[in-house]
Write a structure and sequence with these properties.
Radius of gyration: 18 Å
Shape: flat
Structural class: mainly alpha
Helix content: over 70%
Largest sheet: none
Number of helices: 4
């Protein structure tokens, strides 16, 4: 479906895209530096699966996949500004975002947190839909 957006709306969408990309970048960098690192130094993290390492890894990937989700929303807004919203493109963005989430969870958790499997399945289904002509 194509949308005929006025120039001011298009500019506003590009500003929103820029802000989401920027806030995601700042969220990940500053959150890692000023929140996660300091939080992990505490001695009272919950113990899961015999230690606090699983907790640390889970908190880390959960923090950073928020950024990935915001970037996925930014991609959809970018497509909207371009007038390129289609089922194919939306499925492509959702598939890519889900696969990136799966990769982050798999890598940071060292495959111990099984959410990566769910996001990988969702990503593959969405990518399949994007190439299948939904």
């Amino acid at each position: 479906m194509q949308f005929d957006l006025s120039f001011p709306v298009t500019i506003a969408l590009y500003i929103a895209v820029f802000l989401l990309v920027l806030v995601g970048l700042i969220h990940s960098i500053l959150g890692e530096r000023y929140i996660l690192i300091r939080l992990f130094r505490r001695g009272d993290l919950p113990t899961l699966f015999g230690g606090t390492e699983f907790t640390r890894r889970t908190l880390r990937f959960a923090w950073h996949i928020t950024t990935v989700a915001w970037w996925g929303i930014a991609a959809i807004l970018f497509l909207l500004a371009q007038g390129a919203i289609s089922q194919h493109n939306i499925a492509l963005v959702i598939g890519t975002t889900s696969c990136a989430t799966a990769l982050i969870i798999f890598t940071v958790s060292r495959s111990t947190h099984l959410a990566w499997i769910v996001f990988l399945i969702v990503g593959c289904i969405a990518l399949y839909a994007s190439v299948s002509g939904v």
